[in-house]
Design a protein that fits this description.
0% strand, disordered C terminus
Length: 212
């Protein structure tokens, strides 16, 4: 464990920016580290509003997978807390962050779990691999800015496919009725924009959704 921690800290120092880093690089890294994650809820909302039933089912499955992954992340943080670099005075930090447990990275987990939900669906695998690259980029940016260690990012990337794989069989059994209920609520709450054709209604089909 001492060797692993030493390796983790040494690799962090290699990646972490310093006060001499040009301001534009810091600003670009902050944009990636803190804002790129917003694409996940944005894409999920867009697919739900304008997609078809199978696509909506996939978005709900991805959301459930993210929930499983974040619960696992919470358990890791509660049972095996790990200090962030700035808590132990290591390296340089370029934005304020609460001194919560660093392992694993939740930003990485959210994007990577969404990515693996798409990859496991196969029909969306190309977009999934693109999202996985974004997860790695976000994670690296957070190391660069001093709020995570490299192994926090690796942990998130390893936990994501496990969460997506665990969720998939459960969703095959329970996903169709849950999607149906969600669509019923959606049609009632957003009846006006649906009636005006701004967003898609998508009536539920008879029988189960295709198995993903």
């Amino acid at each position: 464990m001492d060797f692993l921690e030493s390796f983790n800290q040494s690799l962090f120092l290699l990646i972490n920016a310093d006060p001499a880093t040009p301001a534009w690089r810091i600003h670009a890294a902050m944009l990636v580290a803190n804002k790129l994650i917003l694409l996940v809820p944005g894409v999920m909302a867009a697919v739900w509003l304008w997609g078809r039933e199978a696509q909506r089912d996939l978005m709900l499955k991805a959301l459930a997978s993210i929930g499983v992954a974040l619960f696992a992340s919470y358990l890791f943080g509660a049972l095996w807390p790990h200090s962030r670099p700035f808590v132990i005075g290591l390296g340089h930090t370029f934005f304020e962050h609460k001194p919560t447990s660093s392992f694993p990275s939740n930003h990485t987990i959210i994007i990577a779990t969404f990515a693996f939900a798409l990859i496991l669906d196969r029909r969306w695998a190309g977009w999934g691999w693109l999202a996985l690259a974004a997860a790695a980029l976000v994670g690296t940016s957070r190391v660069y800015l001093g709020v995570h260690f490299p192994l926090d990012i690796a942990g998130g990337l390893l936990l994501a496919p496990i969460a997506a794989a665990v969720t998939a069989p459960a969703w095959r059994r329970a996903g169709a009725p849950l999607t149906g209920v969600a669509q019923g609520v959606y049609r009632k709450v957003l009846a006006l924009p649906i009636a005006r054709g701004w967003i898609r209604a998508c009536r539920p089909r008879v029988g189960r959704l295709p198995v993903n």
